[in-house]
Amino acid sequence: MIARRVAAVREQIARAAARAGRPPDDITLVAVSKTQPADAVHEAFAAGLRHFGENKVQEAEGKIAVLEDLRAAGLRWHMIGHVQGNKGRRAAELFDAVDSVHDVTLAQRLERGAEQASRQLPVLIQVDLGKEATKFGLDEAHLFPTLEQLRGFKAVHVEGLMVLPPLADDPEEARPYFRRLRELLGEARGQGLVRGRTLSMGMSHDFEVAIQEGATQVRVGTAIFGERKTP
After folding, report:
1. Residue at 40 is within a domain
2. Based on the structure, what is the number of domains in the chain?
3. How high does pLDDT run on average in the chain?
4. Structural domain for 175, as ranges
5. How confident is the model at residue 229 (pLDDT cuts 50, 70, 90)?
6. Measured between alpha carbons, how far is 210 from 172 in angstroms, rounded to an integer?
7. How many beta carbons lie within 10 A of that of residue 49, not counting itself?
8. CATH of the domain at 29
9. Are residues 142 and 149 in contact, defined by beta-carbon separation less than 8 angstroms?
10. Pairwise CA distance, residues 79 & 82, whole Å
11. What integer pLDDT is reported at residue 111 of this predicted model?
């Protein structure tokens, strides 16, 4: 079942990329495995997926340990949810990337954890373009000052930006948020504040629109694993 879903999502990505005049290999598919058991991740890995996203350090810890042998074969773990202050150092040790950095304090904790573990940690800055009280993320007005503060970090390096637009039935309603994030990344790169080109935007219901607007990373859970399991 998961293999069929993965194939269908990859086909959708390829179609959306073709419409945008982009090669599908430009887009990294991150399977949102939060609340899913380790065997579901294993099945998705067998179907060709390599990037998996978790949103809680404590839930991911056991899952990562169980699947540790797959790391040598290319499995990469992304932290995509809010990292609580006391979990920053542990997140830096566990994950291959943290895609949801929302302030300097968290970045500092990740920096200390990554340095302690003698590793480099790529991160994305989460931008709150929808100004939703229920979501974390940097206000656009604070993005560039924050990037300036992160410029001198040694272990943590900013590879791009991430956004979670307000949920809407019509995927087209997310387009302005995706477009604005792309513009912000261009400005940040022009100022030398971001190393990479990663635009993490788009989920199961709107990733095709996100790809049209330049997404290089999409986060897909339900379309791959089905409805979420109760943690």
Report:
1. yes
2. 1
3. 95
4. 2-225
5. low
6. 9
7. 24
8. 3.20.20.10
9. no
10. 8
11. 97
Task: Answer whether residue 81 shows pLDDT above 90.
Answer: yes
Instruction: Determine the distance from the C-alpha atom of residue 207 to the mean position of all C-alpha atoms in its chain, rounded to a whole number.
Output: 13
Distances (CA, A) of 123 to 55, 176, 189: 14, 24, 15
Residue range 101-124: average pLDDT?
A: 96
Cα–Cα distance, 173 to 162 (Å, whole number): 17
Q: Which two tokens stand for residue 6?
A: 């993965």
61 backbone dihedrals φ, ψ, rounded to 5°: -55, -50
pTM of the full structure: 0.95
Q: Which of 49, 104, 58, 105 is closest to 79 using CA atoms?
A: 58
In a domain, 173, yes or no: yes
Three-state SS string across the chain, please? CHHHHHHHHHHHHHHHHHHCCCCHHHCEEEEECCCCCHHHHHHHHHCCCCEEEECCHHHHHHHHHHCHHHHHHCCEEEECCCCCHHHHHHHHHHCCEEEEECCHHHHHHHHHHHHHCCCCEEEEEEECCCCCCCCCCECHHHHHHHHHHHCCCCCEEEEEEEECCCCCCCHHHHHHHHHHHHHHHHHHHHCCCCCCCEEECCCCCCHHHHHHCCCCEEEECHHHHCCCCCC
pLDDT confidence band for 191 (50 / 70 / 90) = very high
230 found inside a domain: no
Domain assignment present for 152: yes
User: Is residue 228 very low, low, confident or very high in pLDDT (cuts 50, 70, 90)?
Assistant: low
